[in-house]
Write a structure and sequence with these properties.
about 170 residues, alpha+beta, NADH Oxidase, binds flavin mononucleotide
Length: about 170
Amino acid sequence: MDTKNYKSYNDTIMERFSCRSFLPQKITQNELQEVLKAGILAPIAVNFQPERIIVVENEALLEKMKEATRFTFDAKTILVVCYDKNVSWHRKSDGKDHGDIDATIVATQMMLEATTLGLGTCFVCSFKEEILRNILDIPENYGVTCMLPIGYPKEVLPHGPRIDIEDIVIYK
Ligand SMILES: Cc1cc2nc3c(=O)[nH]c(=O)nc-3n(C[C@H](O)[C@H](O)[C@H](O)COP(=O)(O)O)c2cc1C
């Protein structure tokens, strides 16, 4: 699908892209708070609110996180989106833990809010979890959903190409 010609009524959805290159300035604390607030407004299973967001701005820790992933993109702020497995909703019928889903929606809302503020983000899952856990001292009962490096984009790019909608949507 040629997403450049695809029109959505929601500019933010159109403008969000996976940003992998940032300017050296750190985002402001106001911007950070706006992004975090957007996250906690996400829909959450049974509204149990298991999401736990680790904000990393400490330079030594950011540097150390490179041992866990090559996808920090030298961002000056990284949000590590987790969920507390002791708090998240486990479906009664089969015990399925919905914390990962909750945390993903939280991350999505933060990415969209960041986009409206002119900030870039990238949803990153390619990391060595145990190393990341050790570096950030993440409790055992936390699931780690993703990392979101966040900053001012070095360049504004289109989002990645998409296959045809007919190949994705199944009508019954
Ligand atoms: C579950 C998930 C994991 C991802 N992990 C990474 C990652 O580790 N590194 C990375 O650069 N991008 C990662 N991405 C970003 C995707 O590569 C990107 O969303 C996709 O290529 C589409 O591009 P767009 O976001 O610009 O539309 C991930 C996205 C998702 C949803």
